[in-house]
Amino acid sequence: MGLDHSLRTAVITGAGSGIGRATARAFLGAGWQVVLAGRREAALQETADGDARALVVPADVTRPDDVEHLFRSAAETFGRVDVLFNNAGSFGPSGSVDQVSLDDWNTTIAVNLTGTMLCAAAAVRQMKAQDPQGGRIINNGSLSAIAPRPLAAAYTATKHAVTGLTKSIDLDGRTYGISCAQIDIGNAATGLLAGITTGGALQPDGSRRVEPTFPAEEAARTVLFMAELPASANPGSVVLTAAGMPYLGRG
User: Fold this and answer.
1) What mean pLDDT do residues 191-205 have?
2) Longest dimension (CA), the chain
3) Residue 181: which H helix or E strand, with range?
4) How high is the pLDDT of residue 1?
5) How far apart are CA 206 and CA 217, in angstroms?
6) At what angle do helices 216-227 and 18-29 cross, to 10 degrees?
7) Which of 54, 97, 116, 164 is most buried, taking the most CB atoms under 10 A from its CB?
């Protein structure tokens, strides 16, 4: 695959399914070169669907060597990294703080927080080294970074931490033309959220409620919009929810 420096390049983690898959396809459809990362190569190849501008790099974001290989492959193939969509994540265990095992807690932190940090660090190193310098990082937070669901202590803690990481990356990246923003998505229709439209989602009063969803492609379109803003503009924090979902009234 040859280099095309006239095209922008995005790295998307968790690209094998859900929001990551929809976003990768949206970027490819908009003419970007896209590096698809995830643990399952077959799923990544399915996302790429033979597109010549898609580079599949199997990677576990919790493994530093995998992350370094991911960004090295992106730079060697496409010459630079303009955008990182830090999308890979896990819901982790269901439980209040006294119910979550230490192993489950550490696993959730490893994926949602440490994995996000490792990918952001590798992206920043690449964005500082390339000519011209600069780029944009978009972290996938969650509405739980603002208003948690019941029995989601581990997940909520990691997503609050991602918000702090997002702000720090943006502050420290100013000198190098690197901006960082976060998108907090609520109830995009993916396989992981199938339960909220069947058995219903647990509410703060202990009841279960079937909640509305919206197409994952709309989340992808929003990430693409954030990515394609000029370097002089940073969207900062974007909240995107299903219309009518119990968000503002949570808790």
Assistant:
1) 74
2) 57
3) strand 178-186
4) 44
5) 31
6) 50
7) 116
User: What is the token pair recorded at 97?
Assistant: 């703080």
Mind giving me the DSSP string for 84-104?
EEE--------B-TTTS-HHH
**In 3-state terms, what secondary structure has residue 79?**
coil
pLDDT tops 90 at residue 155? yes
DSSP letter string over 130-159? Answer: SSS--EEEEEE--GGGTSPPTTBHHHHHHH
Q: What is the mean pLDDT of the chain?
A: 93
Q: Of 82, 32, 23, which Cα lies nearest the Cα of 52?
A: 32
Is 155 designated active site? Answer: yes
The Cα 2–Cα 160 span in angstroms is 40
pTM: 0.93
Q: Is the pLDDT of residue 195 over 70?
A: no
Nearest to 88 by CA among 64, 128, 117, 68: 117
Q: How many CB atoms lie within 10 A of CB 77?
A: 15
Task: Output phi, psi for 36, to 5 deg.
Answer: -100, 120
By residue count, the chain amounts to 251
Parallel, antiparallel, or unpaired for β 201-202 and 208-209? antiparallel
Of 97, 241, 209, 195, which is closest to residue 155 (Cα–Cα)? 97
Q: Would you say residue 247 has pLDDT above 90?
A: no
> CA angle 193-199-201, nearest 5°?
60
Q: Which of 136, 155, 223, 226 is catalytic?
A: 155
Task: Check the CA dihedral 173-174-179-180 and report its sign.
Answer: positive
Please give the domain boundaries of the chain with CATH numbers for all domains: 9-241 (3.40.50.720)
